[in-house]
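From the pipeline queue, job 12 of 40. The input is one protein chain; the requested action is below.

Action: predict structure.
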Amino acid sequence: VAAQLPLVEGTPLLGVARGVAREGGALARPVAREVRARLLPKTPALAGLAAGWWIASTFTDSELSATLHRFGLGSGPRHAVSSETLHRMEFWVPVLAAALCSYLGDRVATLVRRRYGAPVVAEEQATSGAAPVRRA
């Protein structure tokens, strides 16, 4: 088998290692693209879920439950709020957390694209006949 491998800098193994590294890089790019496409859109939903869990584990509308927890006699939410406030918090805090996470993700993506994005090549513009693309 070693006789059939091309010699690169004197060792056939070095050529194989370079080929494996090249193929590994070629495989990593589509895998990273799929992970990004499938995981990043779910981040705001996870932020909303975490905010909802935090509300449920921290606040209650039962004065008795909160008082017992203060004395170390119970487990569960520590802070008592009115029923109306609790229902509003259960709805709005997760929505706002998801919206904030989505906004921050878009903002970071824009900054990364602006900093590391590939510039538009003049040849691409000439062959496509399109106006220059301005990256935001």
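Job complete. The two ends are 53 Å apart (CA to CA).
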